[in-house]
């Protein structure tokens, strides 16, 4: 039974790092594009690129999955997949509510949600360094939002968040390789 659980954990960790690196890269590129275009034109309308990024990310997810060999679904894998899917749905919904219903601090809210998802991923995979990394990302991002002027906090904080996403993916990939070498 222990071998089956460990194999399930290895199979899961093999697949989770690369999507986080992909999303982190998308956030990084988008944050720099939004910053450059906003600074060049003076128009905050470039923030709509975040929604374009979300569509691009969700569209490329199945393409990444096709490259992987089919795996048996596990509770751990499905739980973490739902955590990250929920993050995507909540962050898009939160942004739309902030834009059209009630003025909410979009970047700070997304930073907190992202930090929570990284922490939960760390807790479920027993990679507690991710739990700490998520706490630093979420709380640090929210605090940074209050210290940095609004037109730049989106870029700086989201660029920082992208680094945390990529780090999370790299840590998971490193841990996967480490587990495989032990086996």
Model description:
The protein is mostly helical and 183 residues long. It is 86% helix and 0% strand. The longest helix is centred in the N-terminal third of the chain and has 40 residues, at 2-41. It is elongated and about 55 Å long.
What is the compact description of this entry?
The protein has 183 residues and is mainly alpha-helical. It has six helices and no strands. The model has no long low-confidence stretch (mean pLDDT 84).
Fraction of helical residues: over 70%
Give a quick account of the main beta sheet: strands, pairing sense, barrel closure.
none
How many distinct beta strands?
Answer: 0
Order of helices and strands: HHHHHH
Contiguous low-pLDDT stretches (5 residues minimum) are none
Structural class, judged by helices and strands?
mainly alpha
Rg calculated over all Cα atoms: 17 Å
Strand % is: under 5%
Q: State the helix count.
A: 6
Mean pLDDT: 84
Terminal residue distance: 16 Å
What features would you highlight for this structure?
about 180 residues, mainly alpha, about 0% strand
Q: Layout of helices and strands, plus pairs?
A:
Blueprint: H1 2-41, H2 49-67, H3 75-100, H4 106-125, H5 128-147, H6 150-182
Helix pairs in contact: 1-2, 1-6, 3-4, 4-5, 4-6, 5-6
């Amino acid at each position: 039974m222990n071998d089956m659980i460990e194999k399930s954990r290895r199979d899961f960790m093999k697949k989770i790092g690369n999507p986080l690196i992909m999303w982190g890269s998308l956030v990084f590129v988008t944050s720099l594009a939004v910053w450059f275009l906003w600074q060049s034109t003076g128009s905050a309308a470039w923030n709509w690129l975040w929604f374009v990024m979300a569509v691009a990310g969700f569209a490329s997810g199945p393409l990444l999955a096709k490259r992987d060999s089919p795996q048996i679904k596990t509770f751990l894998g499905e739980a973490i997949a739902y955590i990250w899917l929920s993050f995507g749905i909540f962050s898009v919904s939160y942004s739309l509510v902030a834009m059209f219903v009630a003025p909410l601090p979009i970047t700070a809210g997304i930073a907190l949600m992202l930090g929570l998802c990284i922490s939960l991923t760390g807790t479920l995979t027993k990679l507690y360094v991710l739990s700490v990394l998520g706490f630093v990302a979420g709380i640090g991002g929210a605090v940074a939002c209050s210290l940095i002027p609004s037109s730049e906090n989106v870029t700086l904080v989201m660029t920082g968040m992208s680094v945390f996403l990529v780090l999370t993916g790299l840590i998971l990939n490193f841990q996967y390789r480490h587990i495989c070498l032990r086996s």
